[in-house]
Amino acid sequence: MITRTMLAALGLLLLAGCSSSPDTASGAATGGADAGAGVPGAGGVSSSALGGPGGSVTPGSQQDLEVNVGDRVFFAFDSAVLDDAARQTLERQATWLQQFPSVSATIEGHADERGTREYNLALGDRRATAAKNYLVALGVAADRLRTISYGKERPADPGHDETAWALNRRAVTVVNVTN
Amino acid sequence: MSGPTHTRRRLLAATAGLAGATLLAGRARAALQLDITRGFVEPMPIAVSPMAGDGPAARERGEAIATLVAADLDGSGLFRTIDRRAYIQGPEELRGIPRFADWRQINAQALVTGVVRGSDPLSVEFRLWDVFGGGQMTGLRLDAPAASWRRIAHKIADAVYERLTGERGYFDTRIAYISETGSATRRIKRVAVMDQDGAGHAFLTDGSQLVLTPRLSPDVERIAYMVFRPPSPRVVLRELASGREIVLGEFPGMSFAPRFSPDGRTLLVSLARDGNTDLFAFDLASRRLRKLTDGAAIDTSPSFAPDGGRIAFNSDRGGSPQLYVMAADGSGVRRISFGSGRYGEPEWSPRGDLIAFSKIERGFFHIGVMKPDGSDERLLTRAYQDESPTWAPNGRVVLFSRQDRAGGRTRLFSIDVTGYNQREIPTPLDASDPNWSALLP
Q1: Chain A closest CA to B233's CA: distance in Å?
Q2: Closest Cα partner for A92 from A70, A63, A116, A122?
Q3: Chain A, nearest residue to B273 by Cα
Q4: B347-372 residue pLDDT tens
Q5: What is the pTM for the complete model shown?
Q6: What is the tens place of the pLDDT at every residue in A77-118?
Q7: CB pairs A-B closer than 8 Å
Q8: A159 to chain B nearest CA, in Å?
C-alpha cells in the first residue's frame, strides 16, 4: 500500500512538473478564443513567451495578460472567496483592461475534481462571478465581461493531488477574440 | 450525428397465459419464489433451453434468444443458468410439456422453453415451468420485427424475473451516458445510448462540443442533456428517433442538470446567473419557467419522487453540499442528510422507498442510499470517484460511474441495492453520467 501510494505520488509529481502549459479551455465553447497559443515566429517556429517584459508579446493580447498581468486567480476548496493574492491579480487585470478599452473578456470558472459534476458547475459559476464582480467594482464596464463555468470539466493540471487541485480551483480571464 | 439505431416499434405482446398445455397452475403449489429484498441471495439454478424453431433459421434465432435470456438472468445475480450441455431433453421435444424428471435430475428449479416461428416478423412463444412443482408458471407470445429480436429476449427475461421474484424486471431498457476519450485537460465527450446490456450502441453527438448529464424522458422518446454551445452552456432536448432538436428557448444564464418529471411534462433545470444557482421547473408545453428555490445558495441536482409530488435536491445552504427534499412547488424544504461528509446527486428510486446519492468523505466517493426522510443511510460503494447514481426501473439495482483510482479509467458499474452483485457494464470508451431508462414501451 505504501509502495503504491508513493509510486502514485511520484507519478503525480512528474505529471505536475510537465503540465505547466497555460489553460486553453474549449475554444468551441468560448467562441474560438485561442488563449495561450504561441505567437508564430519566423520560419513557422512557434514561440512561447518565458515571462519578462517586451519580447514578442502583443499588447492587449491574451499572452500579454498571462505574462505581464496574470490571467487567473485561485480559490480555497469549495470557496469563491477572493483572497489577497486573487484581489491583487484582479486589480492588475482591471488596470490592464482600462488600458485596453476595446478588449472584452470571458471569465472562466473552474473547480477541482473533488465534487459532483453539477455542484461544481454551480461552484465554477460562483467563482467566475466573484472575479467579474470585483473587476466591475474596480471600474471595468460589466458589459465587457461575461462568465462561463466549466465545473470540473477542464482542469488546468491533470494531476490528482492537492497541488493540482489548487491550480484547478480557478477563475481565468480570457480575452475574447474578435475578427 | 446519427440517430439511435434502436427501433421504436412496439413489441406486440400477446397477453400472458398461453392457452397451451395442461396448465397445472403453478401458483396453486408451494410458490417457487426468490426473496430478493434481503442481502445476499443464493442464485436460483435455472435451465434456459434453446428454443424450438420451424426451420434452421428459426432454430438459430431461438438459440440466440435463449442465450440472451440466460445472459440477462445470470447478470442479475439472482439466477444461475445451468450449462446447456447438461440438458437431457432437446428443444424440439420441449414443444409440449417437459419431462420434469429430466430437469429435476440436473437440479433446475425452473425451466424456460420456447418456439420461434417466422423469420420477419418473428413470432416467439415462451413458457416458464416450475420443475419441482411440475407446472407452467407463465407463458407469453411476442411478435416483433426480426431486427427487434434482442428486445424479445429481454422481454422474456423480464417476464421470468417478474414471475420468480415478484418484482418487475429491468432488461428491456436502455442506458444513456457520456462517452469520454482524450486527455484530462481536453476531454472529448459524446452523448451515447445503448441497450442495458451494451448492445445497440450509438453516439448521438460528435464530440465537437462538450456535453454532460443526459436524461431520457419517461417514455424513452426524448433525451435532454447539457451542451457547451455559445453563447452560453445550456440544456437541450432531442427526439431520439429523428435526432431532431426541440428548441427550449433562451434561458437567462447557464442552464444545466436537466431532469424530467415522472409524467414527462416538466423539465427541471438549474439556472446559474450572477453567481447563484437555483432550481426551475420548465413546462414543456407552455414553455413557462417557474422558480422553485431562492436565496444565495447553490441549489441543483434535483430528482422527482416517482409520484411527482416531491423533489430531492442538492444544496449548500447549510454551509456544505447536503441533500434536501421539498414539495414539487418548492415549499416545505427540509434537510435529509446529516452524516459526515459532502453529499450530492440525490436520485429518487422509482419505487419511492429510497434516495440514492453520492457522498465524498475522507478522500473517497461513495454511492449510498437513504430513506426519503434521511434515515437508514447505507453506503453501497467506495472508490476514488463513484458518481452519478441512476436506478433500474424496478428500484433494485443502482448504476453509477467509477474511476477506481486517481487517473484511472472511468467506467460504468451496477450494484444491487442490497450491496451485492457489483458488475461492470462494458462500454467502448470511458463512460460517465449514466441514466437508466424506464422499461421500454
Answers
A1: 8
A2: A70
A3: A125
A4: 999 999 999 999 999 989 999 999 99
A5: 0.86
A6: 999 999 999 999 999 999 999 999 999 999 999 999 999 999
A7: 116
A8: 8
